[in-house]
Design goal:
The structure holds 3 protein chains of 3 kinds. In chain A, about 75% of the residues lie in helices and about 0% in strands. Chain A contains 6 helices and no strands. Chain A has helices at about 5-25, 30-50, 50-75, 90-110, 125-135, 140-160. Chain C has a single domain, classed as Helix Hairpins (Orthogonal Bundle), CATH 1.10.287.3510. The chains are: A mainly alpha, B mainly alpha, C mainly alpha.
Chain lengths: ~170, ~325, ~100
């Protein structure tokens, strides 16, 4: 077994184990905290796939940003540390069946399709190539995303602010 | 290179970074802090243990090691315990991309990643998660308030730091810390980017929760903030994380603005340490001189002063780099 | 030897976990976490296809970066909605938010 294979299986195991805790833990705070190893495992997979820049952005935005936001909201809305509240709704069994069917379908399709199995050559300095691409052929995408970001920012502020003097 | 050599190198590097930083940054840093504060307040500081009090922190560490670990009643023990690991770990991960000097075989750096400064920003943003976990896991209202304040503060001040990092990367044409130092061969970036340097210094002080931005652990209102409930070695690990992060921020400022390891006559590592300790002294000087901000002042300062200033500076730098110098 | 199929299988499993979380959770924040997991599964696919499918191109990583950006937007707006709902109804459990279901 090569080092790459060992790294892959370790990272996949971390991601899936932490993901299982996120999906099933009866304690909301534990699921939110387990999101961090899950996201870091995915980051490791990005590094294995030679996508260092995406990996850095993933840690910065997901692990350092979105997770903090989620923890913040849980702390503001849940009553305290020791509370036990039912977390699963009555359709959990159906949900499990649907999820299992989707996974089976995806794996079957992925296994049967004849993919090109040779890894392609990537540019040697990926951050530079990404920057060139964003300001070259993908400029409309880049600008569109920035507009979406602005709209989301204003919208989130508008929704979350305290309503005063009605 | 076979993979097990890589793994062995990683383990050896981790041990060197951990022990070196733990001893130099945390132990010596705490002693230096107490000596500097004593000097500023016209006191002597610790004198009893060892020559001129040099072994004071060693004695403190031994004392903390012997103390009992207390977990508060109804606390979330799992989160309470794992926060202790996450905070120093995230701080120590920063050191992977910091170049300490140069030798005949190339720069003295653990790994010259091509996303260097982005990696630094990413790992240091993980500290917030650890602090929030500590605040929640303690089941204590002061710890929770400290954790929430810290999250709001650190998330706000990450943005000016990120903008400054982008500005410097733009000037150097690379995200790699080694290339950034190489590009300062003739002119340090502090000369061309004085505003960036000041923004970085202010935001870094806030990011490591030091006075005047230390509302997170304001003793007079929140006991000790998010680590109020921690005892013994766990408390020491939080201190280690805090000092390691302060030294990492100072080292990054040296790398970005003060020419890294560059300097005449003396060996490169010595130059790096001189600059590093000069900046650490500035951090301590500020801590013992300024009073504390209010929460609203703190957030306004980031969102209404630092971020617009950093944005304007970024646009101006981009204009100069792309239009004037072409 | 790790092939594209390995990555696709991991991504499918992560997607399944996310789907299960989004469908079976009562708490709105936990549903959001499930959605984040699903977005991550899609991102693993995009980056893997970038390496194995399209030699020399960066399109997969570009898409992954866009997805991360949109995930941040989604989290910000979603959590703002949850906070607004909490302020009005004092709960974040979606089956308690049944004012319109008569």
């Amino acid at each position: 077994m090569t080092g790459e294979a060992i790294a892959f299986y370790v990272l996949a195991a971390i991601t899936l184990a932490a993901g299982a805790v996120v999906a099933t833990s009866p304690n909301l705070m534990h699921s939110a905290v387990a999101l961090i190893p899950a996201l870091l495992g995915v980051t490791g997979l990005y590094v294995l796939l030679n996508a260092e820049f995406v990996a850095g952005i993933q840690v910065l935005i997901y692990a350092g940003g979105i997770t903090v936001l989620i923890l913040f909201v849980i702390m503001l809305t849940e009553g305290g540390t020791g509370l036990r509240i039912r977390q699963r709704n009555e359709q959990a069994a159906i949900a499990a069946a649907v999820a299992a069917a989707t996974v089976a379908l995806l794996i079957a399709v992925a296994g049967r399709t004849p993919w090109a199995h040779e890894p392609g050559a990537l540019p040697s300095y990926t951050p530079g190539a990404i920057g060139q691409s964003f300001l070259g052929p993908n400029l409309p995408l880049f600008e569109g995303t920035s507009v979406v970001l602005l709209v989301a920012l204003v919208g989130a502020l508008l929704i979350a602010r305290k309503e005063t003097g009605e | 290179m076979p993979w097990y050599v890589e793994v062995l190198r990683a383990v050896a590097g981790t041990i060197i970074i951990f022990s070196g930083v733990a001893i130099v940054a945390a132990m010596f840093g705490v002693l230096l802090e107490r000596k500097v504060s004593g000097w500023i307040q016209s006191r002597i500081g610790p004198t009893h243990v060892g020559p001129r009090g040099l072994l004071q922190t060693v004695a403190d560490t031994i004392k903390l090691l012997q103390k009992e670990h207390i977990v508060p009643r109804n606390a979330d023990a799992l989160i309470f315990a794992s926060a202790v690991v996450l905070v120093p770990l995230a701080a120590l991960l920063d050191y992977v991309v910091l170049p300490f000097g140069t030798t005949r075989w190339g720069p003295l750096i653990f790994r010259d990643l091509n996303i260097g400064v982005l990696y630094f920003a990413a790992t240091s943003s993980l500290i917030v998660v650890g602090i929030l976990m500590a605040g929640w896991g303690s089941n204590n209202k002061y710890a929770l308030l400290g954790g929430l304040r810290s999250a709001a503060q650190m998330v706000s001040y990450e943005i000016p730091i990120g903008l400054v990092l982008i500005t410097i990367a733009l000037l150097a044409g690379s995200l790699s810390t080694v290339t950034i130092v190489t590009m300062q061969a003739h002119l340090w970036f502090i000369v061309t980017q004085p505003i960036s340097f000041l923004i970085f210094l202010a935001a870094a002080t806030a990011e490591v929760n030091r006075t005047p931005f230390d509302l997170v652990e304001a003793e007079s209102e929140l006991v000790a903030g998010y680590f109020s409930e921690y005892t013994g070695m766990r408390f020491a690990l939080f201190q280690l994380g805090e000092y390691a992060e302060m030294f990492a921020m100072a080292a990054l400022a040296v790398t970005l603005f003060l020419g890294g390891w560059r300097g005449p006559v003396l060996p490169s590592v010595v130059w790096f340490l001189i600059k590093l300790y000069a900046l650490v002294f500035v951090f301590m000087w500020v801590r013992w001189t300024f009073p504390r901000f209010r929460v609203d002042q703190l957030l306004n300062f980031s969102w209404k002063v630092l971020i617009p200033l950093a944005l304007l500076n970024l646009v101006g730098t981009a204009y100069v780099v792309m239009v004037v110098q072409r | 030897m790790i092939t594209l199929t390995h990555y696709l299988v991991v991504s499918a499993l992560v997607f399944g976990l996310g789907l299960y979380a989004a469908l079976s959770r009562r708490n709105a924040v936990a549903m959001l976490m499930g959605i984040e997991l699903m977005l991550n599964a899609a991102n693993i696919n995009l980056v893997a296809f970038n390496k194995y499918g399209a030699p020399g191109a960066m399109q997969g990583q570009i898409f992954a970066l866009i997805v991360i950006t949109l995930a941040a937007c989604e989290a910000a707006v979603g959590l703002a909605l949850i906070l607004a709902a909490y302020r009005r109804f004092e709960t974040t459990y979606v089956d308690d938010l049944n004012l319109m279901r008569w």
